[in-house]
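Q: I'm writing up a methods section and want to include an example of the input and output format. Could you take the sequence below and give the corresponding predicted structure tokens, formatted cleanly so I can copy it straight into the document?
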Amino acid sequence: MKFYTIKFANENFEISPFGAIFWPNEEILIVSDLHLEKGSSYYQRGTFLPPYDTFDTINRLEEIIKQTYPKKVLLLGDTMHDKNGLLRMPNKMKEKFFSLLEKWSFVLISGNHDEEFKGYDLKLFPSFKIRKITFRHQSSFDETTEISGHFHPVIKIKFKGVRIRTPCFLVTENKIILPSFGTFTGGLDIKNDAFKDIISKNTSAYIIYNQQIINLNSKYF
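A: Here is the clean output for your methods example:
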């Protein structure tokens, strides 16, 4: 898959159609909202979803890691869908997940879904800062230069004559909000009030469409 380069905080960042960002100068891969074991969580509540979300999400994570070969991987929160997710995860997937954690240098930031991992002692950080960029789960909506997730931004537009609903990266002068990486995570329309303090005429939306990144200017939203 082809990456799309953007300038943010005077640095080049490469956006992937997988829904991840690579920071070449620091060799850091940034991913948010895996929500592993969301399918099994819904199953426990009587909603029967195909039980393959963790399999697909971890395999895609492994693939993007192999593409970028990062020195560090930042997971920006909601890695698990709930605190019992690791207990429900199939052993084969659990082995693969922990193998990735052991092989690569991971930083796990806490999200609202995974403030702890029951049964496993994995260190979670409330935020992480590299140079002047803060990485956290949810945007602070202030002047801090930061990269975050949480909102799972999606956009509904008419593009090339076709109505589409697709994940997107939102980029402002000092904020980037990533789409969710997880298979079953869905998304929140950027016209929702949750984005009202972010969206402006200077906001760019980079959509994932046909395995490409496409830059939409503000006329679309």
